[in-house]
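User: Predict Extracellular solute-binding protein's structure from this.
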Amino acid sequence: MNNNGKPKWLRTVTGLTAVAALTVPVLAACNKGSSGDDKTERVLRIATQYYAEEDEYFRQQFTEIFEYNNPNIKLEIVSAMNPNQYRYGGRPEGEKPEDPYAKMKELLNSDNPPDIVMMNFEQLPDLIANNMLQQLDTNITKDKFDVSDIVPAVIDGIKAVGDGKLYALAPTFSSQILMYNKKPFDDAGVKYPTDGMTWDEMFDLARRVSKGDGDNRVYGFAFNTYSSGSKENLFYEMDPYTSSLQLRMFNDAVDGLTVASPSWEKVWTSMIQLSKEKVLPEPIDYSKMDAVRRAAMDDGGGYNPFQNNYFMNGRLAMTLGQQYSLNEVIQANKNAQNIKGYTPIDWDIVTMPTHPEQKGIGGNVYFNGLMGINAKAQNPADAWKFVKFINGEDWARLKSKSVNMLVSRSKYIQPRDGLQYNIKAFTALKPAPVENEMSKVYRQYQNIGQIRSMGLQYFKKAIDGTSTVGDALKEWQTAGDAALKQLKENPNAPINVMPKASSSMMMMP
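Assistant:
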């Protein structure tokens, strides 16, 4: 979240406004007559959690072109939360924080209910379970709206939540892939990664290409390109590995942790072993890095801006990435002659590794603009018209120019800048299933994330060898049980049960 309470990704505004302005007449021509000859003025209300009526980004991203093509339809953006509520001052001491999702549900059931609801993917199961969304399949069939071109990562993920039915659609998305540098594989005489690998198969490749010492060490894998190699980062970075396993931190009753288990022990053991083998990056010596930077500047030249990016500086064989990660490599390669110390990378991508027990589940898929129609919509016809429009081909063709998001229609997902790489790796895997009950728990207990942060202290003990993995997990479970008891007694109070070593470990990630 940023300081205004909006999700972090909202701060990235792409340069599509100019493109939209140029493309509007084309879309208008394509859709001429789509409004029929009906000149009746009417209102279409769109509910969001944070966007407000005056939010320029939301309108640029989702509504401007529709408004241009449908001047008789007035769009109203209705925010469940006041986006400026704490802008001019923090929340008063003792005031219970509001639940944005609870406020959204109130809005959907209000006397003046909105027609469309924009939601997060983890909220979709609960909205469906409470019969708050209209099923879209009837409209899709009636209008012969083609959804066959929507990529599996989107359509199958949404259908899985709706028991095979569609209650929402998302026009754009982002997903993770495995990006690799071909040189370490060529140097080691090892075959390149392939689509459909398991995590263990990928880790085996990572071990085989890891070699060298000190500053010449080439690492096999990192969860992200800027991994610092620290124990703290590894504790949080391994989320993509654990998310598709659906490892539970606490039980259904939320009165006990479940981390002292063979599954958790296997995960920690695997990560710690990879760290000890130096398959994962070692901690960065920032003082040494500063010295290198100063020396480069003293020589009258610049320094390599990617010196702490193991993948970009050629010292990392494989890493997880997203659409913007590719753009970083593409732009660096195009401008290599202007980047001192940078060598262009010969790269490609494959699907994110999966677990055998969760085949086809790729972990982190983010749906941008996920919208459905309120079951109590006052204007359901125009609501469907809008949902159909932003999920249609014309809209996808325009938005396919984005460097941060991918459109959901496969026809318009193409490699950038005329390059040849495995673009389908982004679209093949479904998101990890949403656990509806767990989503409720995190909304009910505002500070429950602190219990996860407690685990860092015990993970460090295990990786340092001062405790076995099994014993460290048992300690975390004991401390976490006490913390859960506090939460049950006072859901909004900070947790006072602290690990022995340092209260700083209670910080949220």
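The chain is about 40% helix and 10% strand.
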